[in-house]
């Protein structure tokens, strides 16, 4: 017997189009608005512009690269020259320090020694105790007498003591002397164990650094072996001994490397190109940076000339492209105008004769087009006459079917009525029960014929466009219940289960449609499902929403339909032979349902696979009505 499932909710998410699809559609629509003249003009201009712009870009790139290459060589040369100067200075400082130390033992001071020490910016020279740092002997008055009594701090001595080797002079990183000025300390271990101690200023280094200036902001920078600023264009960086040890250029130069680097300078707020190297005797770093903007500016002069030449070339190419595109597109446009006139129904339109200077292919195009239009006009005339004949034949067929149906319904109604009287023994018993069985058979046959005739009449009305929809609020569960009740007895006889599924909002809110026609469609679909589903099978009736539509589907587990036969079953009187069940009916159910769906503003779709079952879906528009606003939300 049939198992009738309860109506329950089934939320079905609505699908949405991808943004990329919409964007691609808009782009295609925009391109379709361009004329061939414009398309050719753009194409020719691009073809001409590519080499011109490529050449201009190459010239611009080479100009900038040449500036960069020149800057690399120049900056590296300046950095190496500075390094050589500092190396000579360090050599002179060490020589002067050794000479000054020797006077402590000889007691004789050579001529010009003090002038030499002053020029080397010595501020202090003394011999100190290696443990306490107390001054034992000193040479006052050669540069800064106020520092003659300076005592070296023990912790400073301890810091450099392990670095001292007999006869070697060690120069410290940037320090502060007793007066708080930037200075470098010199240490040398003497043969008697004492330590010679000297202090030199940084003015020579700073002055030499400031002498290197080029361009608008090209300069040099000196940092000590720990990355502290010794010489820099920013005086506050010198005063604060600004630490640059963590910058990429400092790490490279402090590692003893020589090269050129590009980097962004927050201080100058600009990209920089800088050569770097180091003084091997002390570990000082020498940099020669310059803002890239200055290189860009020099390259801009070349770029300006290249741009002007490119602009003139592009202008000439554009003018030539415009003329060439017009030369090619004008004849094609005349053919397109004629085609448009023909599309609007003017079959007398023809493409004009081409000018003598037009290419041969376009002459052939116009001639072929005019010949084709002549052939189409001739064929259209023949088709029009054939259509008139076909329409007359179709009208005659429809009129014949309608008249025949009307003629048959009257006697069939009488047969049906008299058979019911006999079956129900209205005028007394028939005595023989076989008469009652025959009366029932007569009644069933008459009922079936009346149903077939009614379908023929409805199909004739649909083909004639005489079916109209009478819309009103319809609750889907009520329609499902009514349709299922009409077929459940036959489903039970075939041992079939019928289930229903309705989305939540469709179960609660009505839709706007014609209830009678929807019921008729569902009854046709359910009847087919019952007819072609084997005992023990299942029929599912479902309703949901998708892409602004209400979808009502009838799905069965029956014998299915081969793909080659799908189109046939949707035509009037189209049937498919089945080994499971003999031919029954006239094949009007699906075609009539399709016509009724179209009358409701919807459509009918069919999916089936042989041996797997069939799904027929009714698609109805989701009408925006007050009773349905919550449904569309």
List the helices and strands and how they pair.
Blueprint: H1 19-32, H2 36-106, H3 113-119, E1 122-128, E2 135-138, H4 154-161, E3 169-171, E4 175-176, E5 182-189, E6 195-201, H5 203-210, E7 213-214, E8 218-219, E9 221-223, E10 229-231, H6 235-239, H7 248-254, E11 259-265, E12 270-278, E13 285-291, H8 292-343, H9 360-423, H10 433-463, E14 472-474, H11 476-493, E15 497-502, H12 504-508, E16 511-513, H13 515-531, E17 538-546, E18 549-556, H14 566-569, H15 589-599, E19 603-609, E20 613-621, H16 629-632
Parallel strand pairs: 15-17
Antiparallel strand pairs: 1-2, 1-6, 3-5, 4-5, 5-6, 7-8, 9-10, 9-13, 11-12, 12-13, 14-16, 17-18, 18-20, 19-20
Helix pairs in contact: 2-8, 8-9, 9-10, 10-15, 11-13, 13-15
CATH class of the domain at 470-632: Alpha Beta
What is the helix content? Answer: 40-55%
How many β-strand runs? 20
Q: Which descriptor suits the 3D outline?
A: elongated
Could you name the CATH homologous superfamily of the domain at 470-632? Histidine kinase-like ATPase, C-terminal domain
How far is the first residue's CA from the last residue's CA?
40 Å
Provide a descriptive summary of the structure in words:
With 633 residues, this protein is an alpha+beta fold. Among the domains are: 67-121 and 202-295, 2-Layer Sandwich (Beta-Lactamase), CATH 3.30.450; 382-448, no CATH class; 470-632, Heat Shock Protein 90, CATH 3.30.565. The chain is 52% helix and 17% strand. It contains 16 helices and 20 strands. The chain has helices spanning 19-32, 36-106, 113-119, 154-161, 203-210, 235-239, 248-254, 292-343, 360-423, 433-463, 476-493, 504-508, 515-531, 566-569, 589-599, 629-632, and strands at 122-128, 135-138, 169-171, 175-176, 182-189, 195-201, 213-214, 218-219, 221-223, 229-231, 259-265, 270-278, 285-291, 472-474, 497-502, 511-513, 538-546, 549-556, 603-609, 613-621. Strands 1, 2, 3, 4, 5 and 6 form a six-stranded antiparallel sheet that branches. A five-stranded antiparallel sheet has the order 10-9-13-12-11. A five-stranded mixed sheet has the order 15-17-18-20-19. Strand 19 and strand 20 form a beta hairpin. Helix 11 (476-493) packs parallel to helix 13 (515-531). It is elongated. The two termini are 40 Å apart. 26% of the residues are buried. Residues 1-17, 143-148, 579-583 and 627-633 have low confidence and may be disordered.
């Amino acid at each position: 017997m049939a198992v009738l499932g309860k109506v329950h909710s089934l939320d079905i998410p609505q699908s949405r189009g991808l943004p990329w699809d919409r964007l691609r559609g808009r782009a295609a629509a925009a391109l379709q608005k361009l004329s061939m003249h414009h398309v050719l003009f753009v194409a020719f201009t691009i073809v001409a512009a590519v080499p011109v712009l490529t050449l201009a870009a190459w010239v611009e790139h080479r100009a900038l690269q040449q500036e960069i290459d020149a800057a690399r060589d120049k900056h590296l040369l300046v950095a190496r020259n500075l390094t050589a100067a500092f190396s000579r200075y360090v050599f002179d400082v060490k020589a002067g320090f050794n000479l000054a130390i020797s006077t402590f033992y000889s007691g004789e001071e050579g001529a010009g020694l003090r002038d030499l020490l002053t020029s080397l910016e010595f501020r202090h020279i003394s011999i100190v105790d290696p443990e306490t740092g107390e001054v034992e002997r000193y040479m006052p008055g050669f540069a800064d007498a106020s520092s003659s009594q300076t005592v070296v701090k023990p912790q400073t001595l301890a810091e450099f003591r392990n670095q001292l080797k007999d006869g070697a002079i060690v120069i410290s990183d940037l320090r502060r002397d007793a007066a708080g000025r930037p200075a470098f300390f010199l240490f040398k271990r003497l043969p008697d164990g004492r330590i010679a101690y000297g202090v030199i200023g940084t003015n020579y280094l700073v002055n030499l650094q400031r002498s290197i200036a080029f361009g608008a902001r090209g300069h040099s920078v000196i940092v000590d072996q720990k990355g502290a600023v010794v010489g820099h264009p920013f005086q506050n960086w010198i005063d604060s001994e600004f630490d640059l040890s963590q910058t990429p250029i400092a790490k490279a130069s402090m590692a003893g490397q020589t090269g050129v680097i590009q980097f962004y300078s927050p201080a100058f707020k600009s990209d920089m190109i800088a050569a770097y190297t180091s003084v091997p005797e002390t570990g000082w770093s020498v940099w020669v940076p310059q803002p890239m903007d200055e290189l860009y500016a020099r390259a801009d002069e070349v770029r300006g000339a290249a741009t002007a030449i490119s602009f003139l070339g592009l202008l000439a190419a554009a003018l030539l492209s415009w003329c060439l595109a017009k030369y090619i597109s004008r004849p094609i446009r005349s053919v397109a105008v004629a085609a448009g006139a023909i599309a609007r129904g003017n079959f007398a339109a023809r493409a004009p004769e081409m000018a003598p200077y037009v290419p041969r292919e376009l002459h052939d195009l116009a001639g072929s087009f005019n010949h084709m239009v002549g052939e189409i006009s001739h064929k259209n005339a023949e088709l029009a006459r054939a259509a008139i004949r076909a329409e007359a034949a179709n009208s005659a067929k429809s009129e014949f079917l309608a008249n025949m149906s009307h003629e048959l319904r009257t006697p069939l109604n009488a047969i049906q009525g008299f058979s019911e009287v006999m079956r129900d023994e209205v005028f007394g018993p028939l005595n023989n029960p076989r008469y009652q069985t025959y009366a029932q058979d007569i009644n069933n046959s008459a009922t079936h014929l009346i149903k077939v005739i009614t379908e023929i009449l409805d199909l004739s009305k649909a083909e004639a466009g005489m079916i109209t929809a009478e819309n009103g609020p319809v609750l889907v569960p009520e329609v499902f219940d009514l349709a299922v009740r009409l077929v459940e007895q036959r489903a039970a006889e075939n041992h079939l289960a019928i289930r229903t599924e309705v989305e939540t909002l469709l179960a609660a809110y009505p839709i706007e449609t014609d209830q009678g026609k929807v019921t008729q469609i569902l009854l046709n679909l359910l009847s087919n499902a019952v007819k072609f589903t084997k005992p023990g099978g299942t029929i599912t009736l479902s309703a949901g929403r998708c892409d602004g539509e209400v979808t009502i589907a009838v799905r069965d587990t029956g014998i299915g339909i081969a793909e080659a036969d799908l189109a046939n079953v949707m035509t009037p009187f189209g049937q498919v032979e089945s080994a499971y069940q003999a031919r029954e009916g006239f094949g009007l159910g699906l075609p009539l349902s399709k016509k009724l769906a179209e009358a409701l503003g919807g459509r009918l779709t069919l999916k089936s696979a042989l041996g797997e079952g069939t799904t027929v879906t009714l698609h109805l528009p989701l009408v925006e009505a007050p009773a349905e606003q919550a449904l569309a939300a």
